[in-house]
Amino acid sequence: MGLTLGLAWGALFGMAFAAAGYALTGGRRDFTSRSATVPSRFEVLVAAGYGDRARTVLEGTAR
Q1: Contact 44, 58 (CB under 8 A)
Q2: Residue 57: alpha-carbon gap to chain centroid
Q3: CA 22 to CA 48: how far, in whole Å?
Q4: How far apart (Å, rounded) are the C-alpha atoms in residues 12 and 35?
Q5: Average pLDDT, the chain
Q6: How far apart are CA 11 and CA 15, in angstroms?
Q7: Residue 41 gets which letter from DSSP?
Q8: Residues 26-43: pLDDT tens digits?
Q9: Cα end-to-end span (Å), the chain
Q10: Over the chain, what HEC string results?
Q11: What is the pTM of this model?
Q12: pLDDT at 2
């Protein structure tokens, strides 16, 4: 009985606080949606000994 009552009170207070938060923000969301993620930089990992070759290949394609 105690567990059921506690769950009911928790659900009631959860709904009340969610409704209050929704009312205070006017229903607006607090984040901006993006359609794509665009990285600002990349890190390339290569095995030892292939660093110079990887750099050459990347410099040739980064035009």
Answers
A1: yes
A2: 33
A3: 54
A4: 36
A5: 85
A6: 6
A7: -
A8: 777 666 677 888 889 988
A9: 70
A10: CHHHHHHHHHHHHHHHHHHHHHHHHCCCCCCCCCCCCCCCCCCCCCCCCCHHHHHHHHHHHCC
A11: 0.41
A12: 83
Largest CA distance in the chain: 72
Residue 32 corresponds to which tokens in the numbers above? 């901006």
Q: Report yes or no: 45 and 54 within 8 Å, Cβ to Cβ.
A: no
Distance CA 32, CA 39 (A): 17
> Which residue in 43, 52, 1, 48 sits closest to 60, CA to CA?
52
DSSP state of 49: T
Residues 6+ apart with CB under 8 A from 44: 54, 58
Q: Which two tokens stand for residue 10?
A: 């928790």
Residue 33: both structure tokens together: 């949606």
